[in-house]
Amino acid sequence: MDNMLEMYLYETNTLMEQLDELLIEAEKNSDFTTNDVNEIFRIMHTIKGSSAMMEFSTLMEIAHHIEDLFFYIRENGMDSLDESHKNDLFNLMFQSTDALRGEVEKIENDEPLSTNIDSIIANINSFLEKISSSGGAPSADSSPAAPPADKDAIAAINQELAGCPDSKLPFFIRVHFEEGSGMENLRAFMIITALRDIDMHFECYPPDVETNSDTAETIVSNGFFVALSSQEDVDTAVGILKEQNSIKTYEVIENVHAKPKKVQKKDNAPAPAAEKSAPAPAAPAPAEAGQKGTPAPAAAHGTPVKQSLISVNLSKLDSLVAVVGEIVITESMVTSCPDLQNLKLDNFMKSARQLRKLTDDLQDIAMSLRMVPVSGTFQKMNRVVRDMKKKLNKDVRLVLEGENTEVDKTIVDSISDPIMHIVRNSVDHGIEATREERIAAGKDPQGKVVLSATHTGSEVIITVTDDGRGMDTKAILAKAERNGILTKPASEYSKKEILSLLMIPGFSTNEAVTEFSGRGVGMDVVKKNVEAVGGTISISSEFGQGSVTTLKIPLTMAITDGMEISVGKSLFTIPIANIRQSLKIQKEEVILDAGGNEIVKCLGEFYPIIRLHELYNIETEKTNIEDGILIWVEATDKSFCLFVDELLGEQQVVVKPLPSYLNNFNIKNSGIGGCTLLGDGNISLILDIGNLYAAYHNQY
């Protein structure tokens, strides 16, 4: 059941995301297309069926009533609704999907489902009654299920095996499932769903397999019948049956009530030459039971091509990445073995280079398996902006750019909440309250928020830009001074430093608490969450023009390229992404600033020098600037030079987190981001360049 529940949640959440995107796009166009109506009907039918299977009655009821509503709309067309009805329909659908999502979240959190959904059902039913009374009563056949059999047909299905249900359609396909396969009614329902996905007209017997588990016995005894209207539909349906699991045999039968009965029997053995009355497969079905047949004839009749995709549990990918990491370490240990030093081993080195290439390829493949586009997270923001527009009565649109940019799955999950908070801030704080205010400022009456993602080497840059009122640095500084959080005189704060005050815990510029902001829990949490995945956040703004919030997120946290350095007997790793240049300088090139700190000129700009041995109190013989080497590094808006003993070389390292008990010593804020195991067995500490700079300034 755990596997079934996991699959149910995955599929339901995926369908809910598709539904949200569809509703947002339809609302922008102020109408549902025919395809939209059909798609919503299919989504709700699928959620209803799977929820019934899992016995989640609340979800099934809500989905069932929405399905009834869209069956009516599908039968009568969107033209039967006037503009007020359409607006009410959009609001009703968003309320209903919120209710569905709320119930799914309860399942995920192992909480009991709601026991009272009468208000939701009443809203749906009253809307259906309203549109049906104004546009004509619903057709008698308003049930969204497949056309039901009449009483004679239901009785006929209990006849001998040779008997067929009573139907006006000219063809039957009778399906028998493998003995002992179990849940035959649900397997039949999967066939129904596959046929509905291509909008095929058919009847099925028994008609209530999705809700009546007792039909499983009938299917075991008599088989499952699908009635079809043409030979072409038969060919297409046969192609779909070949892609279903656990089917033992199927047979195509002409309707005995209209024509003499001809039977062609098929099973999962190589097929004989086809008779006239049977569909001719392009290739024989595989001999092994349970395998899928070749879908060539189905493709010829428009059957959807089966995707070569599988769902993989994230924990399995975590294990794979961990094993690849150990392989990288072991490969480094072999090639760096001290016993091999100073030996001329041409064949060994050739094999070692080939091993390194294969290891790199394996690592790239393992990493790519975990990479997912940020589009899922970005699309959710459409709904956030849509709801805020309604509640704040603001005219604003969201523009998405770079949705196909890929990031590690774990990181995508971690940045969803920070991005949502920043987008909400942009709409709530950034965009002006009225169109008149924007027009007076010489701006487009409609506000704009741009959410974009771009690749830059080893990281992804995500920006949230708005063209609103911008941030008043004077007001921010005054509020910070009143709250007593300034660490130096207000006059000494630069614009960038003032904006960074927004990310101090408890700081908020909102005087009143609203639904969206003003509780003092905001950008500090965003900053903490972003830094937890190795990212950084910065804010820039022009008062009256708008604001830009920038997130720099690593593509992955598991394996990275690093530069090994030494300071005394200690080893450190600097991520290659943070290194701009390494250089040797003379003593006279070092200048002291007004505070007595060492600075050096690089490419026309002056940068501070941080001596690593002084910061960490490491004993070393190389204290003269000429004896060691400077490494020019940068992280977000911080750029400086590290003075170290020597460079040991570039190496691919597996990032290992530090033990949790070390958190008591504030290790991360000291500039240490983790550790890695080197090929010779030594441990190297990985430097966090951003925190290292902050640690230096706090210490000195």
Descriptive overview:
The protein is of the alpha+beta class. It contains 20 helices and 23 strands. The protein has a six-stranded mixed beta sheet. Strands 2-3-1-4-5 form a five-stranded antiparallel beta sheet. Strands 7-9-10-12-11 form a five-stranded mixed beta sheet. Helix 1 (2-28) runs antiparallel to helix 4, helix 2 (34-53) packs antiparallel against helix 3 and helix 3 (57-76) runs parallel beside helix 5. It is flat. It starts with a helix and ends with a helix. The model is unreliable at 136-163, 259-307 and 512-521 (pLDDT under 50).
Topology:
Layout: H1 2-28, H2 34-53, H3 57-76, H4 83-108, H5 118-135, H6 151-156, E1 171-177, H7 184-196, E2 202-205, H8 215-222, E3 224-228, H9 231-241, E4 247-254, E5 263-267, H10 296-300, H11 314-335, H12 346-369, E6 371-373, H13 375-392, E7 396-401, E8 406-408, H14 409-430, H15 435-440, E9 447-456, E10 459-466, H16 473-483, H17 495-500, H18 523-532, E11 536-542, E12 546-554, E13 559-567, E14 570-575, E15 579-583, E16 591-592, E17 598-602, E18 605-611, H19 612-615, E19 629-635, E20 638-644, E21 646-654, E22 672-677, E23 683-687, H20 689-699
Helix pairs in contact: 1-2, 1-4, 1-13, 2-3, 2-7, 3-4, 3-5, 4-5, 11-12, 13-14, 14-18
